[in-house]
Fold this sequence. Notes:
The protein contains 10 helices and 7 strands. It is of the alpha/beta class.
Amino acid sequence: MTVLPTPSAFRPVSSARFQHAALGDAAEALDAYEADEELVRTLHALGYPAREVARATRAFRLRALTHTTRDLGIAQVLEIGPGLPPRSTPASHHLVQRHHHRARTLYIDHDPLAVTHLNTAHETEETGRMVRAVLGDLRNPHHILDEAAAHLDLNRPVALVATAVLDTLYDHEHPRTHLRILLGALPPGSALIATHLTHEHNPETVHRAVRTLQIAGLPTRPRTFEDIAAFYTGLTPAGPGLVPAGQWQPTHTDNHTPANDHTYAAIGLLT
């Protein structure tokens, strides 16, 4: 019988720091505390591959944004829950700026520390007014749209990024409704880029991991394939559709992505 940790087993962790700890890169680890590292080690001891899931999610986001900006021509990004600025890989605004010199990116995060770090990084890069980070929460989509209208041109296509975000909201918080409000304000040609945790492939292990994350103060709600597909209702799938994150058009750089990463991913297009 596996014994789950008690609430006192962890000091407070943040989602942003935990994600950097889970990535396991030396550069990203600089932003994590011991409590975050401890949580990652505990999850692995329970059989849940937190590091592989985090890496697969990041790799998908990089591939998906490259596809939407380079191949589909989208020059604006609205990213919800970006967390801390990446150290070892390009940030979302870097990817879009590779293909669109005047690209605009708006980051929305509910963590004030993440927003501060993001804005500090952008000021250092001298990206000017093309990149902004502001406080916001998916549970308040109208506030997000107000911020988006002030920074982006909502008459032109937008890549809405929500990786590792939708599974942090419980059903009673109505994540689908909030997402539909955001998508309803975007023009045709826009895209939804999202990932979502599932318990389908190993219910017992994922249940233990979810309980551990909740004890640590990180809300987590895995869903089935059908439930996750419902987020994309009315959208046209790009590429292979809704598949495990590591299987969405992998490249030779994704050699460390596991075959089963407990996470579904997809790009949905507004047509």
